[in-house]
ATPase (Amycolatopsis albispora), 975 residues
Amino acid sequence: MRFGVLGPLAVWTPDGDAVVVPEARVRALLARLLVAPGRVVSADRLVDDLWGNALPANPAGALQTLVSRLRRAIGTGLVVHRPPGYLLDVPPEAVDSGRFAELARRAPDPAALGEALGLWRGEAFAGFADEPFARAAAAALEEQRLTVWEDYAEARLRLGEHAALADDLRELVDEHPLRERLRAAHLAALHGAGRTTEALDGYRRLRRLLRDELGLEPGAELAALHERMLRGEVPARAEPVVPLPTPANALIGRDEAVAEVRALLSSHRLVTLTGPGGVGKTRLALEVARDGGEACLVEFAGLPRESEVDDLVDTIAAALGSQNGGERLAEVLRGRRLLLVLDNCEHVVEPLAALLSGVLRAPGVRVLATSREPIGVSGERLWEVLPLDEAGAVRLFAARAAAVSPGFVVSEDNADAVARICRRVDGIPLAIELAAARVRVLGPVELAERLDDRFALLTGGPRDAPARQRTLRAMLDWSWELLTGAEQAVLRRLSIFADGCSLDAAEALCSGDGVRPSEVLDLLARLVDRSLVVVTHTADGPRYGLLETVSAYGERQFGAGERARLAHAHAAHFTAFAEEAARHLCGPDQQRWLRRLDAETGNLRRALADPRFASRLARSLAWYWFLRGRLTEARRATVDPAWQAGFRLLTGEPVDGGTLPGLRDNLAEPRERAMAGWFLGYAATRFGELTDGEALIRTALAEFEDLGDNWGVAAALSVRAVHRYVRGDLAGSAADAERSRALFGETGDRWGRVQANAALGRLAEIAGDYRAAAAWHREGAELAEELALWPEVSMRWSELGRIALLEGDHDAADALHERARAVAVDHADPAGREFAEVGLALSARRRGRFAEAEALLRPWLDWNRRFEADNGAALILAELGFAAEQRGDAEAALDLHGQGLGAARRTGDPRAVALALEGLAGARVALGQPGRARGLLGAAARLRASAGAPLPPGERGDVDRITAAIGRRFTDHRP
């Protein structure tokens, strides 16, 4: 179906036959939907627009009746219900107003503008133009019609159609006597047709009218036209502009870019689109130029590099259709509203810069240039064309792949491969299109696997494309050949880096063989200008990097032996960097050096591949890996036996506890030995035998104290605080935690403060001071987030979830545990995920969702049983036992609590033992043994009291429930 609003409301079949829409109010509904085709209009708005104050008794029913009648008239599939109302589901081009707008954008093409004006059959929304819902739309369309008439008139003036145009405009000018642009076209047409006297009379009438009606004088352009008429200047027939080429394919993924560049051109007369080769600068420029108004594409790619200003002038004049070359360029440009699209300017920037100052003297001329580097003249506004984001890149790949392999779609089977292809070619449209052309013979999975040899693979560009766009190598050859020898050397050497580098690294590794370190910055700046190097600004200074494709190209430019020498220098540089960083990771500069190490992750991994530096580098990075939670990477790379064993424990691999103390003894340097002992003690405390952890930490503490190492003392005390509260020595634990926090404060180590806060928070929780506990954990979470210590962040959010759970706020507890789980999943942290999901299970069980709790707990029970430490298993067994008891399976509960009691006793934690005894009491009362249950509860209470940790209020729920059940059982069995 097609619809018409540029005149009386009309509907036509695809064959052009008129469709009758009966009833005035049904036609009004259609008109209202055609005000914004494809957009939802709420039911309330439709009722107001169609009935106003004269509402029917049942407005909703009346509207549905109208919708049904409209559907019968035009088809049920076109009027769609979509909350909160209805829409007319048709594309813009199905409505004559949409077709009109599309043709209007083709200005200054007179044929397109004439076709656009030919669509009008009367006033817009005739019959409804006075209705409130159509008034604004009708007025906007009328304004657009007049603008198109003005564009059309100026296009015909350039073609010399003065006489015919003068007659065509007479009636329109009489209807709109104050539109100066329309009147100027009419006067110019009269003058060009030899009717100058009429034109001068018309100017005088306009002048009087403007004075009388508005108190204004004619504008500058009209005044200038008046002067030319008085002098008798005959307007020359303008040379027709060669129309912009029509691209074969739709532009994908650049809607925002088109809008932004058009906005820039409205306020700047010279805009240069920069970006790497193949990123789509030309295609974007052509789309921008279709915004309306006269535009001309000038292609400079065919000019030699030694071109001079006159060569450029002749090229522009030829593109404008001038028959007299550049001699008349100034005259051709004078008085015209014209957008010059100057394409591929990078190899002629010097003569172009000299030319542009003259071109831009013509007030109606704007320039949109494409170049791999700025032109470098006053008033230039740069706009960088970035590679496509992943969504846009995948859409482009899918569209181009479907063109060569009909039926191709991105599916669950190939989505990962397609995304990987788009990432590896850096989202560059030309590279994506070259890759998509190979789908027919390789398929996306095989194509993704072969991209290491991208320059041999991506060669299938269209035969009608310029040679530089037919292969990936040719695209980069064009840029490479424009560089000086020094620029080529720096670009080639930058490919040795992974994920970019800092300025000092570039100066160290990109200099040599005629390039001085002091010259590297200027060379980098020139490569950035040429869109070959990407610069990002960070808190620690600029970083310089290459797109993967440019890096792969640079790798191929190394001379014999050059890459091997540079790789060795690279590994040496980053080993020295890591050793320097390690000295700053336990103090006030911790955050900055963590950030710097993060930025160099790719380079550090590349350096680790050099066996001559791997051991030194791994030793320097061990603490960094630990802080960042990159434990698996650390375990693979670390060769030191002590640290290797610690990382194995932390990643869930069992280690013979009896061997741990001897591992540190092999280290000769005292602080290294104490640090390794501390690390082993920390790991053993979390996932090994508590007694091993206690022994190692005790030794490390003594060694740090002998060395006068306050940081080491604080670290050892933070772990000993854990040992002490597990053993029930709450006062000793508090003393250790407080002293640890004070010493970490003196050293400026925020990681350490997180550790001390964790112990203090747990102690406050045990004491039932939930407000203080939450404060300690929240401060720890904030510190950890500042440092991006994601395992700590996850644990602290889970601890806050536990506090919310103890306070009875299950919704808050679930939200906090979910937040913790998300962080742990994002950073592949199984310990953090376990702690979060156990917290979710605690909440589910307390809410009576026993199956959900058990489903969360069961996998983690198996995970915890891999370790010598029984703390996690003891808690999970207790929770599984309570869940079984509450859902009525007392025998299972008794078995689970029995296992839990064994695990709790092995931990040495009196609170864990008390919890298991309380669980056994619940199972016994469920089995009808209230006397035995009461004895178990009494034992648990005595154990908690002896440990100085009575049951706090938030943990009384199960004990109170079991106590009440015991009372009922005794009542039920009373004689």
Remarks:
- The two ends are 89 Å apart (CA to CA).
- The chain is about 65% helix and 5% strand.
- Residues 255-384 form a domain with the Rossmann fold fold (CATH 3.40.50.300).
